[in-house]
Design brief:
Helix content is 48%, strand content 10%. The protein is of the alpha+beta class and 474 residues long. It has a single domain, classed as Cytochrome p450. The N terminus and C terminus are likely disordered. The chain binds protoporphyrin IX containing FE.
């Protein structure tokens, strides 16, 4: 029963009009069914495969403060799950075998998500290139970054590391807290290494010093992104310096310049003028690579410091006169399994279905590198640091892929492992150390990093202990 002004409740309709409205509802339903059947038979109505499992509420946002976020999701929802990253639907994919299959089957629907340097470099970053530019430039850099450039410079690379670590030890002995000096020291080592290998100039060369100064301007303490006016200015200086070095290689051949990535580029990419996409990528490889490498050296120091038994084994091998290099390499590979390598990001540019789930255009894919390396089905006691796992250098690429998978795999993988191994050798051959500060890991600009409080106090080994042929700089 309703009364006037009852706030909007409707009165019951009379019986005749009720019958009429019942009939029209039936007719409406019949029309809908007819349309549905027609659509079904015409195949225009398809049931969409489901999105991967996982909530999309506020608690599904991946947080940089929680390094176990993806691991928990994987355990709870399986190796393919969804979450929100940077306000976008993102799909986590665990396991390298599965990820490789995903890339193989749907490569054309996935494009790498990386820094945008197209304002600096005509065809952009090698990492973001697609066919045919990618094949063209990647094959040139594959030749240029060949591991034997390192062999040619082995003594100079070691001298750079030894010199910088000795300065750190000296400054610490004079009272400067190591925490203030550690990151800049490692940064100088990695920048100098990469400049030497890229351009073949020694640290005492004037052009080398100008290149170093311009890189310090581009990123005084880490890779600066987004790139602003100071980076444009520094990049212009670097481009001009690199173009000059290329010109001197092309014309007379520099008598003071040795083997280098630039020198190893096919002649066609230096003539008649050096290709600006090559120059730009080389500059950004040094600029970004030095931070990746610095990050890895910090993790290496952290894991060695946390595992004195491993350091004892390295020293034993050193004193035994054989096996140090292999074990040092194993330490590097085990560090890369546990840290520094984080994840591979791809933009989904076209809808597709994989393992029964829908990957919609506009979403992101993240291959879970860190988590895949800590999967107990791939490695026993996966959270433990055990370099012994890598004493045999061969590894199963379905379990271990710190340098990525597929066509965009890291072009400097071999170089990174060799340089880091050399660093461990120089450290063990010339120093002892103790930890003087530490704290929890944190998410830096692109990676998890050891605490900025992590610091070691280095001490030169007594001269009498040094191996024959190796002496500390005066
Ligand atoms: C700790 C050291 C490093 C690690 C863990 C690392 C890891 C990776 C990974 C995982 C990829 C694949 C990215 C993807 O598929 O989206 C990659 C690509 C790449 N890396 Fe590295 N990297 C390191 C150091 C370096 C250095 C020092 C350089 C250069 C000197 C470098 C140059 C490149 C380039 C150019 C690519 C793109 C290759 C392509 O798209 O064809 N990386 N790196």
């Amino acid at each position: 029963m309703t009364t006037k002004g009852d706030g909007g409740a409707r009165a019951d309709p009379p019986v005749r009009s009720r019958r009429r409205s019942g009939q029209s509802a039936l007719r409406r339903d019949a029309d809908l069914w007819a349309k549905f059947l027609k659509a079904w038979t015409l195949g225009s109505l398809r049931v969409q495969p489901p999105l991967p499992p996982g909530p999309l509420g506020p608690r599904s946002i991946s947080r940089f403060g929680d390094h176990n976020f993806f691991r928990r999701r994987w355990q709870r929802f399986g190796p393919i799950f969804k979450y929100i990253f940077s306000r976008r639907l993102t799909i986590g994919v665990g396991g390298f075998q599965r990820a490789r299959q995903l890339f193989r089957e749907h490569g054309e629907a996935l494009s790498p998500a990386t820094v945008n340097i197209s304002a600096f470099v005509p065809h952009g970053h090698l990492r973001s290139m697609t066919s045919p530019h990618h094949e063209h430039y990647r094959s040139q850099f594959n030749l240029a970054l060949h591991g034997d450039v390192i062999t040619a410079w082995d003594a100079t690379l070691r001298a750079i590391a030894l010199d910088e670590l000795t300065r750190l030890a000296d400054a610490t002995a004079r009272g400067t807290p190591p925490k203030e000096l550690m990151v800049p020291t490692l940064d100088r080592i990695t920048l100098r290494w990469l400049l030497l290998l890229s351009y073949g100039l020694r640290p005492d060369d004037g052009t080398f010093r100008s290149l170093e100064a311009a890189h310090m301007k581009m990123g005084p303490s880490g890779f600066v992104y987004p790139l602003g006016p100071p980076q444009h200015e520094a990049f212009a200086e670097l481009r001009s310096l690199v173009t000059q070095i290329a010109a001197s290689i092309r014309t007379a051949g520099r008598s003071d310049a040795g083997d280098s990535a630039l020198r190893r580029l096919p002649t066609a990419s230096l003539e008649p003028e050096v290709d600006p996409t090559i120059v730009g990528n080389l500059i950004f490889m040094v600029e970004m690579g030095r931070y990746d490498l610095r990050g890895l050296l910090r993790w290496i120091l952290k894991y060695l410091s946390d595992h004195p038994a491993v350091v004892t084994e390295l020293r034993r091998l050193r004193d035994a006169g054989g096996g140090l290099q292999d074990y040092a390499r194993a330490c590097v590979q085990e560090t890369l399994r546990l840290d520094q390598a984080s994840g591979l990001l791809r933009n989904v540019v076209k809808d597709f279905t994989f393992e029964g789930y829908r990957f919609p255009a506009g979403s992101l894919v993240r291959v879970l590198t860190w988590e895949s390396h800590r999967d107990a089905t791939s490695f026993q006691n996966p959270d433990e640091y055990r370099p012994d796992r890598f004493v045999q250098p061969a590894h199963d690429p379905d379990n271990y892929a710190p340098f990525g998978i597929g066509e965009h795999r890291c072009i400097a993988a071999q170089m990174v492992v060799r340089l880091s191994t050399l660093f461990v050798e120089v450290l063990i051959n010339n120093f002892t150390w103790r930890v003087v500060g530490d704290g929890p890991r944190f998410y830096g600009k692109f990676h998890w990093e050891p605490s900025l409080d992590f610091a070691i106090e280095l001490h030169p080994r007594a001269a009498a202990d040094l191996p024959v042929g190796e002496a500390l700089p005066s």
